[in-house]
Amino acid sequence: MTSIFLNHFDDLLATPEDAEQLSNTILQLAMQGKLGTQDSSDEPASEILKRVRSSYPDSEKGLTVREDEIPFPLPKGWEWVRLPEVTDNWGQKKPDKEFTYIDVSSIDNQFGIVSDELAILYPENAPSRARKIVKERSVIYSTVRQYLLNIAIIDRDIQPEPIVSTAFYVMHPVEGLDARFLYLYLRSKYFTKFVESQMTGMAYPAISDGKMSLGIIPLPPYAEQQRIVARVEELFVQTRALAKELAHSQTELDGLNKSALSHLLASETPPGEFNQHWHFVAEHFDLLFQSPEHITPLRQSILELAVRGKLTRREAGNESAKELLKRIQNENENLVSAETISNGETYSSVKESEIPFPLPDGWEWARLEEVCSLVVDIAHQMPKSVDDGIKFISAKDLLDDGTINFERNIKLISEEDFENLAKWVRPQRGDIIYFRIGARLGKARVVKTDEKFMISYSCCVVRPLLFDVEYLNFYLDSGIVLDQAQDHTKSIGVPDLGMKKIKSFLIAVPPLQEQQRIVARANELKRLCDELEARLLSAEEERGRLVKSVLAGVI
Prior knowledge:
This protein is an alpha+beta fold and 555 residues long. The protein has helices spanning 2-7, 18-31, 45-55, 83-86, 179-187, 189-198, 209-212, 222-265, 271-283, 285-288, 295-307, 321-337, 415-421, 469-476, 479-487, 499-503, 512-554, and strands at 79-82, 87-88, 99-102, 107-108, 113-114, 119-121, 130-133, 139-142, 151-153, 162-165, 168-173, 216-219, 364-367, 372-376, 390-393, 411-413, 432-435, 444-446, 453-455, 459-464, 489-490, 496-497, 506-509. Helix 2 runs antiparallel to helix 8, helix 8 (222-265) runs antiparallel to helix 9 (271-283) and helix 8 packs parallel to helix 11 (295-307). The model has no long low-confidence stretch (mean pLDDT 88).
């Protein structure tokens, strides 16, 4: 399995994010002795231990590794040992002369080295944690928030004398233990798992020096340690190069994707040029949209192209948008006369400077309130929850799939509170719930139920009149309206869009029959996006399972 892993190394790295998983596997294989070959002429680790024990006759006391602690079998010539048996601790001292201070922030945890820019302090300025002595080749391990892997080798003779923070556990390898091998093992999943099992504390989880000293390490022959280090470093370089190449390719692809879509949406693009850009996207579709992350901007672009009239053609004989707006105005006047609705505000005509893009022939610009019988929120009060009552819809219930949640974890309010709030509006089928406050500002969802419910004042009800509700919902959900909304939000903290601004939103009004064709075409393309996204996600998951299976088999 290891040979399969090495022969197909490049294939296992499909995204920059795979680099970490691949690096972890490299370390695990290395620590098991599976990355290189054993050489029978190498001096075995037992001989290294003999020399250590002869120099430190008490070193074996309490250091024997128990069978139940061993995470994996070792190759011939290797030994399991505890860290204190093969590392020295230089002790502590209170600085008494000028010194170089190394704290956790001094560590480059990507490459395992200490910074070149270290603080040189006098004893009177020494932090209380500046106590532990280190020397060249010492390995330091941050015992606080170990998941950050702040581990480093003191890779040079630092002057003045280096002193490290007590936040580090210090290990100076004995003769026969390569500092780089020790460093790699400390970064491996095996040792990380041990440390995690010994940590205490919630806000700042840490491991004590006493617990650290219980850690075990596989000790290969010294010559093999050096071969392992060389092989790991070679594969790490290869991994970083592949990850960098993939990241660069991803950046270029994202840029190409963004450029292609922005050219389609450019308001000044003439019809002939638009057709060229559309053919480019169609011809290179598989290249441009090969990742699930590319589908969301594609959906949004389809939405904007649709409500700009770029995806449909006007058919002869259709009622014009000007005639439609006149009919809506007459119907609103009839509703006001019948006291079904109150008289709305009078808005100024659309100015040339407000127009975000040119309209197709037969279309008109209008204010949102001009195409609705109702645009209203409720009283700004929050009713109490009850165990049994009327459903109360808020921000969390406007789902990302374009629907409204009426089933899961819904707040209920009393009938009395419902009737009080219903004096402003009773939401009904065919209304649009538009979110006007908070992180979901600008989300629009169509009501497709006859169930009685109420909305939070963070939303408002938009009720189209003689207008296709799905088209208006697409438009309100598009970036065209979101730009208008974000330009007029109030409050430094939570974004808050006033009702007057919502009512004055600019709406591109096509003929009614064309609205319906736009909705049909947009829905068709959105379904294709959904299918493509599902295929891409499935392929991504399958590749992930395959890689995981290969790596698990290797280890």
